[in-house]
Design a protein that fits this description.
homodimer, alpha+beta, eleven-stranded antiparallel β-sheet, seven-stranded antiparallel β-sheet, globular
Chain lengths: ~700, ~700
């Protein structure tokens, strides 16, 4: 699985703003669609995608607000992504009676298609370079805080203008550490209905042990249908299905939204990650996982309620283990040091560059030292409660929207309000039992780490016992009902101020603390790191040109590579696996979890062509967020579905090693074979293959 | 595969004589049958094998002179071993018309059973501790060389007396670095007929890449029948076949002949291995492999002729890569240093021990320094020619047998003559083409490494061009005919001296050089290392007791362990694999070599129960030479057939890591399934299962 905890990185600004690695390895790179690696493709593969080819792929690709990627795969709005990207929606739609996560789902007819409570799907329909306007906004302002404010205001203005003009979601994003700023326009879809999902066990075969490994045997797919004005979306921007699928040795492309990488971090940033951030996050994840597992042990319904959470936590823990190993690897650190030394030497060799940009590393290293003692406070002050998060959003929303756009907290800029309201109004049920579990667990850890008197914790518990207070707040709140949320939003500041809902009361107490924290972090660190990062971004262009790709930002990128095995376990991993391998691994473990077959897989054994490719690997460069990305061939046909990286890819946050780093994908032939012969979904397979 | 190049170790005496590691890990150990780990078995498994249980297993186990192990598996002398142990015989019996190595072999009726040209099978029928007599022989002799001579004479006398008395092969072996000497009595069988062998590709599925790895899918088995007086051997000492086979989690035992380990080497010895021996051997193997591969490229018949040689060389290269990695591992070296420091400190803490044994490490370290410059000379002075080896044996044989037994070169002691003559008189054809290839290649490497004027090389080529001389010698010799050899042996020294056979002439010229070398090495180093090793052996008993096992010596040992997977590739390796996995790996590589199926495997696909276990792993401690060892359960039933170790076992020459080191075996149920459904050998399967 490849869901990196993107949001954690956002908590920790220093990790995001740093220098660019000068060495591009063959097949490395998550390229923006405005700057595809045409030269490399021409050289190595004698293939140059046309603008039309690139546009079609981009417009067929989607980003899901649940944190993954996907693609349109039929003229009638069928959307393909991973089961584990759909997992959040499946969990929200399941009940004790209908456990779609465990049992899967299949809508045999259109009217059975099941509307997702809060899934938003974004298509990147336009991009525009706005670097000059953003960078000029801060020009000549000596004070860092004021300069940052001016830059933020310019960004908000660009977004609002474009949103007003086009009606499209409009995000200004920073690339190359601020070396460039781009306006990304998205068409948003929010009527997204589930068509098919396999059983969790078939999708996530091998469970946590096999997660992030290969060879694999996972049917990690889900199909939604996107609706527009109540009808299936008719579109020409969809990927033609390749029945044959990915072939060993062939060139393939991946179009998706890698979440975040830290390949351009300075060495000082990597050391903060290694020594402070990584250990703290690991501790947090372990604490949450232990709490969720203890809860799951109470019974099958409890286990169902936290199933998705346990998956996510185990996934993140495996990621952080991999990151820790990569950062403990002396060879990796030495490579990073050598790259940085080369970059600095080249800047220093030019007096003008040195004067303009040469202090950036020192500035960043100084901030990195300053933020070390801040990390625990930033990480552990949290509730992990969905209802609390909604409450705080409501409290801040009513206040923020009264301010000029440029003065607001960033979540409340005009351009993003539509998506935010869609999320806040989600009708997905929020089970009180897990709210209590998560909130108590988070506050206890905060108390342990930051002390009983911590202002954040005390703002919530007010001297009381954590369990008692949390139970009372969760039992007392009415925010589980979207109508209550709507009434508060509509009522504005007065209604929120007058509310006696205990969750709103708690959020009101936390609000000033959260604001003060944001302001302090922003004024003290972000205001310094932003211009320092921009310096490195500009210097990189001067030193190395633009034959590079920016760090991942959960925006659309193009990767490419070859379908090919790699050295593993003293031998060679195959380019693809087959259904034979699924039945081998199950039998090899005496069909015991997490290596057991589902009843449907058992029953289909003799119907299947067991030699059909099931999963495969390619050298394309991906990271968490790419889950659900389509893999296409030179003809732009869909040959696979990205769902993971191998264990050797875990260092990919920091470096790319083309000899061993592999993307793991579901094979298009395997998906069709499964739909037809395991799930009896022949008509759906026909729609994918364009046979109806 | 697990055929370590045992003979190389014998070339390098210092590697064999050293101190004993004090820490016994659970399930570690290659125990002698006189000292089985009863306490450990009782503690961990609550199982104590009876003397009868142990005797039955010992008497059912065999050692093959081709360098592997095996076991009796029917009352009518059926002997089970690996295909790769039988490989030498299959190669010798194959011709351009009948390639049994490639195509396999099956004798449907007794008269089709094919007599092996020079396979000897030994059963260990008795053992006797002779430590006192051997050690006393050298007592009080101050001169090292004289002392060694007296010790060697005592050993030869013990062997001869016993051979004369019992008619059995009688070997005195040194265990615990000379801490003990034992007389091992073997019943020899030399009428050994091939009954069944699968195709090479089925036995060695995955080829060199998969060699020394797991998961595996190899039918690495062969069946011989041992004849006695022209009739199938009737015996009660055979292992009952377990149809169910090895079960995950169960306790199993391995009875076989591990070739050599260096776990008790001093640290100084390991460093010689790491810095000098390992690199030199690797160079030698690479040189030979390149020559053999170039020859194979000339055509299919050439490829057939060197097929077995290439296998052996690739296998050895993978071993030496693994050894080099283990010795480069700082953690392993640190462990070894800590163990030695503990041992030395405990000896030093007792003034009496210190006086008696304390100088041994210093003595050995001094010799290790002295032998470093000798290594290349010892390794590269060779011809790799079978005919030359026979010629030198003939030249030395006729001279040696006239001397008193104790004065002879060790190969010609009375007790070993029967086996030696069996080997020398082998009717197996010796193809001149490969003789030329191997001999030229070896002499050219010797010339490169030791110089054109090297006395050994010049004794053979006498100033001529290597290729020309070798071609002329090989074309001119008549030694390919066993009758010619016999005539020379019968004619004695006069006949050999008068011979104008060019290979005999070359051997006559080399003989004095080989003798002088033996004497110098023996007098200078072995005479010092032998008593030093004995000191360490004795000191180890005093310090750690006898709760330890001696280093491997290609004599019968008992290992035990659990059938269980292990952490691998970021996940878990299964305890066993199935036929499903074979078909998966083949399909995954598009059926390309070395991952292709044989025609018989293709044809049997639908007949097989694909979920049948094929290979499995257990924690038992093995090393090269154990190939072909039976794996038995508590009931003493055969549940598997050892054929390899996993990649993590490659450090096993020096250390045992029970968390990851695994023995790889063919499953008894898989063998039966293959015999019945792939090879149509139902009657043979019935005989194994005791059904006829």
């Amino acid at each position: 699985m490849n869901d990196r905890p993107i949001r954690l990185a956002l908590l920790l600004p220093a990790a995001l703003l740093v220098a660019t690695a000068p060495f591009i390895h063959c097949e490395e790179g998550m390229w923006t669609f405005d700057n595809p690696p045409l030269k490399l493709l021409k050289q190595k593969y004698n293939f140059v995608p046309t603008p039309e080819w690139l546009d079609h792929l981009r417009l067929s690709s989607v980003r899901l607000n649940d944190g993954g990627s996907g693609s349109f795969v039929s003229a009638n709005g069928l959307l393909l992504t991973n089961h584990h990207v759909a997992r959040g929606q499946l969990q929200k739609e399941s009940t004790a009676e209908h456990d779609y996560l465990r049992d899967g789902f299949f809508a045999a007819t259109p009217d059975q298609e099941m509307k997702s409570p809060d899934l938003e799907v974004d298509v990147l329909v336009g991009t525009k370079n706005v670097t000059e306007r953003v960078q000029n906004a801060a020009k000549g302002i000596a004070d860092d805080t004021q300069a940052l404010k001016a830059r933020d205001a310019a960004i908000a203005a660009i977004e609002k203008e474009n949103k007003d003009k086009t009606g499209l979601r409009s995000d200004v994003i920073s690339l190359y550490q601020g070396g460039e700023y781009w306006l990304y326009e998205y068409k948003e879809y929010t009527d997204v209905r589930l068509v098919f999902a396999p059983e969790q066990q078939a999708a996530f075969y091998g469970g946590d042990p096999d997660n992030f490994t290969y060879p694999r045997y996972d049917i990690d797919m889900a199909l939604f249908r996107v609706y527009d004005n109540g009808k299936p979306l008719h579109t020409e921007n969809f990927l033609k299905w390749s029945a044959k699928g990915a072939d060993p040795g062939e060139l393939v492309f991946i179009s998706g939204n890698p979440g975040s990488t830290e390949r351009d971090d300075t060495v000082s940033g990597l050391l903060v990650e290694r020594d402070v951030v990584g250990p703290a996050v690991t501790e947090y994840l372990q604490h949450r996982l232990a709490a969720a597992q203890a809860f799951a042990a109470q019974g099958p319904e409890q286990a169902r309620l936290v199933g998705s959470t346990i998956f996510g936590l185990q996934n993140s823990l495996k990621v952080f283990e991999g990151r820790a190993e990569a950062l403990a690897d002396k060879a990796i650190l030495a490579k990073k040091q050598a790259e940085e030394a080369d970059f600095r030497a080249k800047v220093a060799a030019n007096p003008e560059w040195q004067k303009e940009y040469g202090d950036a590393w020192v500035t960043i290293a100084k901030v990195d030292e300053q933020i070390k003692p801040e990390i625990k406070g930033q990480l552990f002050r949290r509730t992990d409660s969905r209802l609390f998060s909604i409450a705080l959003d409501i409290v801040q929303y009513v206040a923020e929207i009264k301010k000029p756009d440029g003065d607001r907290l960033p979540e409340y800029h005009e351009a993003g309000l539509q998506s935010l309201r869609f999320e806040m109004m989600s009708p997905a049920p929020i089970p009180p039992a897990t709210e209590k579990l998560y909130m108590s667990s988070a506050l206890k850890l905060a108390e342990d780490e930051l002390g009983k008197d911590d202002a954040y914790v005390q703002a919530i518990v007010q001297g009381g016992d954590i369990d008692t207070v949390v139970n009372s707040i969760v039992d007392g709140t009415k925010l589980g009902d979207p109508a209550v949320r709507k009434a508060l939003l509509d009522g504005g500041e007065a209604a929120v101020a007058a509310s006696t809902d205990p969750m709103i009361e708690a959020a009101r107490r936390v609000d000033p603390i959260a604001r003060a924290n944001y302001k302090r972090i922003h004024d003290t660190y972000v205001s310094v790191l932003t211009p320092a990062g921009e310096k490195l971004g500009k210097a990189r262009f001067l030193v190395y040109g633009k034959d590079a790709y920016p760090d991942a930002t959960f925006t659309l990128r193009l990767s490419y590579g070859t379908v090919i095995g790699y050295p593993y376990n003293g031998t060679i991993a195959p380019p693809f696996t087959t259904f034979y391998g699924l039945y081998d691994r199950a039998a090899s473990f005496s069909n015991k979890p997490p290596f057991d077959l589902t009843a449907k897989e058992e029953a289909a054994r003799d119907r299947l062509d067991l030699a059909t490719p099931l999963n495969f690997v390619c050298t394309g460069d991906i990271i968490g967020g790419n889950s659900g990305s389509p893999v296409v061939n030179r003809e732009g046909e869909l040959v696979g579905l990205v769902f993971d990286g191998n264990i050797e890819s875990m260092a990919g946050d920091f470096v790319y090693d083309g000899s061993k780093n592999r993307t793991v994908a579901v094979h298009s032939a395997g998906m069709i074979e499964a739909l037809r012969k395991i799930y009896g979904a022949g008509a759906l397979a026909d729609e994918l293959e364009g046979k109806n």
